[in-house]
Design brief:
- The protein has 13 helices and 37 strands.
- The strands form 8 sheets. The protein has a 9-stranded mixed sheet, sandwiched between helices. A 4-stranded antiparallel sheet has the order 2-3-4-5, with no helix packed on it.
- It has 715 residues and is of the alpha+beta class.
Length: 715
């Protein structure tokens, strides 16, 4: 029985519903949005380099667009583009003297590191490794670059530079029928022969794999985002002197990854995170530890490690005394919590802060640590005072800080908000009077009718306060009725709000098309603390559906809503929730389920996000106590109850949730004679709506609109 829900209307201030113009936000305006990526202040705080992502018309096909990302520099008065060309540059790092930058750019299909002097000289290529190089980080004295190299087991077995001792993995490869890893070193004298000896047959089968006639899986996590992959990949650390012709030196060895590598303040040590137990197969070892090593790779040791915990984001302080990092429990639902310790790993101090911290940055004097954390519909900047251990919020919930950096007495940051999806700002460290440095989106936005959300809250049946937002149709006419779209987020730990950028265009497009939009952060969402985020344990359907439907019910009371014309959509977990709702509630005239999970048992095999099953539901499909829970929580169980016309979409190469999830729903509904349509996107992955093929992203938006118009539009 759902408790009576109390609605609290929050005060609207500062012209919340004001609009800039009267022109509609068009579907193709998606291609006009320019987005700030990385942000890096010079060491003296007098300049900032930042990346800008744009959508550029394809030279080969006028209907297609390509993503481009390039580096710009600003002295806070003028902005200048530094990199150009077809190869994107996502981020760059300042040298300690502020005279050069390092960045990674593609060369013949592999990322390599370049050095660019800022006095007008030409950039030169620093690395030339066949595996590629990425993530350049300057040593404190500016003489060396620490970087990462990605490789695979097979590459390491064949490459005597990466693996000079010709060692085999210390962990079991888990190949059925073999007790050790000696099969990884076949006798090269044996020739492939399908009619030969067992050794020759094995050589023949290995040749088939080499020639891509077969894929053989022995690993647990064989599904990537877009393709299945039998290869196990690693991230190794290298260092190179900053001069033309220099040779890189390998710092880490063995069949294991090292991530988030950074220098100590004095340049004598390097910190990184890596797996805790190197005897476990990398697919099975979910624990990670913080390690330190000397600058030459020697004396590698674990300084922060604990069973059942994953440590990441090692960030040493400029004075060399402390290291900040985050931790998350791996056996249940993850939640990044902030901690501080001495740089030797002693005196670990958890910080009392009930948000998931990220993007850690120290002030130059080491007295404060800045971070961002999704919270209450936005992503504010927070400041931790190292002495008092108190956390202070510096920016608001109605905007989102997507990247930032600190130097001297300044902070530069990229911000998203309803009135503009992405711009760059500079401010003092209290962020009291930020100055806008860019005008990436001002020109095309100035004539557009922008709909601003109205925030409301209610208490759900668990006593949790749920936030939601209502957006009126753009250019709304008095006395006219409009359809209402309930749009839901995935994750399930995602969070939406005025300060979340990924839905900016979609929300504004539908408001321009004459739809009102309501969206909520139901139980299980991020941004409201650990208890709220874990409140959907073994309850993916009933509880979260209660929360989003309560938001929809309240929005439907608005005088401008045509209650007979309500529609519903969501992707990923919200694709799940869309299917759940139409199997339990029949108020919606049409629904669109995107890249969802509909049967939790088959999801175990089909999706690379399969660990959501044991983590959220307490076990596996073959366990007797878990079987009824998975059946109860699967939308597919209630497919015969669906009366709402349903459009289902999935990317053909989506391996996060798996395409058969949608095809089970579609085929079953079709057999039962229900109104259903299925769209399968060739080459599309789970990230289609965010970073996929731009033409397909436009197609997706138009298909939602066109399908809904069949049922709520003018016939």
């Amino acid at each position: 029985m759902i408790k009576r829900i109390s609605i609290v209307l929050l005060m609207v201030t500062n012209g919340l519903f004001a609009q800039n113009g009267t022109d509609k936000v068009l579907v193709t305006d998606m291609n006009k949005i320019k987005t700030i990526g990385s942000v890096n202040l010079s060491p003296d705080g007098k300049k900032v380099i930042y990346s800008v992502r744009t959508d550029e018309p394809s030279e080969e096909n006028k209907l297609e667009f390509d993503y481009r990302s390039h580096i710009w520099v600003s002295d806070f008065q003028t902005n200048k583009q530094l990199t150009r060309g077809l190869e994107s540059v996502g981020s760059a790092a300042w040298s300690p003297d502020g005279k050069q930058i390092a960045f990674a750019r593609g060369v013949k299909g592999k990322s390599q590191i370049f050095i660019m002097p800022l006095d007008g000289g030409e950039a030169f290529q620093l690395t030339d490794l066949k595996q590629g190089a990425s993530n350049p980080t300057w040593s404190p004295d500016g003489t060396k670059i620490l970087f990462s190299v990605g490789t695979t087991v097979n590459e390491m077995l064949k490459d005597t530079l990466l693996n000079p001792s010709k060692a085999l993995p210390s962990w079991s490869f888990e190949k059925a029928g073999f007790k050790d890893n000696t099969f990884l070193k076949p006798d090269k004298k044996v020739k492939p022969n399908p009619d030969g000896s067992l050794a020759e047959i094995r050589a023949y089968l290995d040749k088939d794999v080499e020639d891509k006639k077969a894929k053989v899986f022995s690993r647990l996590n064989f599904q990537g985002e877009a393709n299945t992959d039998p290869e196990i990949r690693f991230n190794l650390l290298f260092v190179i002197e900053v001069k033309e012709g220099a040779k890189a030196k390998q710092l880490t060895h063995g069949f294991w990854s090292y991530n988030g590598a950074t220098w100590s303040a004095d340049g004598k040590k390097i910190f990184a995170s890596c797996g805790r137990d190197t005897t476990l197969h990398p697919d099975r070892e979910q624990n990670s530890a913080i390690v330190s090593m000397n600058a030459d790779g020697s004396d590698l040791k674990y300084i922060i490690a604990k069973k059942g915990v994953s440590y990441s984001n090692p960030t040493p302080s400029p004075d060399g005394k402390l290291i900040a990092f985050t931790q998350s429990e791996v056996s249940w639902l993850g939640f990044n919590q902030l901690l501080i310790a001495n740089t030797d790993g002693n005196n670990i101090t958890p910080i009392v802060f009930d948000r998931a911290s990220g993007n850690l940055e120290w002030t130059d004097d080491s007295k404060a640590l800045y971070m961002t954390a999704p919270s209450n519909g936005g992503t504010p900047i927070y400041k931790l005072d190292i002495t008092t251990k108190k956390v202070e919020k510096l920016t608001d919930f109605n905007s989102g800080i997507t990247a930032f950096d600190i130097a001297k007495d300044k902070i530069a940051f990229a911000k998203t908000e309803v009135k503009n999806p992405s711009e760059l700002y500079i401010s003092d460290l209290l962020v009291k009077a930020p100055v806008k440095l860019t005008a990436l989106n001002d020109e095309w936005l100035k004539t557009k009718a922008i709909s601003f959300p109205e925030k409301r809250t209610y208490k759900n049946s668990k006593g949790l306060t749920v936030e939601y937002w209502i957006m009126k149709p753009a250019n709304m006419e008095s006395g006219k009725k409009y359809p209402l779209l309930l749009n839901m987020h995935g994750g399930p730990t995602a969070m939406w709000g005025p300060g979340e950028s990924s839905m900016w265009h979609e929300f504004q497009y539908f408001c321009s098309q004459g739809y009102g939009v309501v969206y909520a952060n139901p139980r299980g969402s991020g941004g409201y603390g650990k208890d709220f985020q874990f409140a959907n344990y073994q309850d993916w359907g009933t509880g979260p559906a209660e929360d989003v439907l309560a938001a929809a019910s309240d929005a439907a009371k608005e005088s401008w809503v045509d209650t007979s014309k309500q529609v519903l959509t969501g992707g990923s977990y919200a694709g799940y929730l869309t299917a759940w709702i139409v199997g339990h509630d029949h108020r919606f005239k049409a629904a669109f389920a995107q890249r969802g999970v509909y049967d939790l048992t088959t999801f175990m095999g089909e999706g690379n996000a399969w660990r959501l099953v044991p983590n959220y539901f307490g076990g596996y499909p073959w366990e007797e106590k878990i079987k009824p829970i998975l059946e109860r929580e699967s939308p597919y169980t209630y497919i015969d109850k669906i009366k709402t016309p349903l459009l289902i979409k999935h990317g053909e190469n989506d391996l996060r949730t798996g395409v058969i999830q949608s095809e089970m729903m579609y085929k079953s509904m079709k057999i039962m004679g229900k109104e259903v349509e299925y769209v399968r996107m060739p080459g599309g992955t789970h990230e289609l709506s965010r970073s996929g093929n731009i033409r397909q992203r436009i197609d997706r938006m138009l298909r939602i609109y066109e399908f809904f118009e069949r049922y709520v539009g003018k016939k």
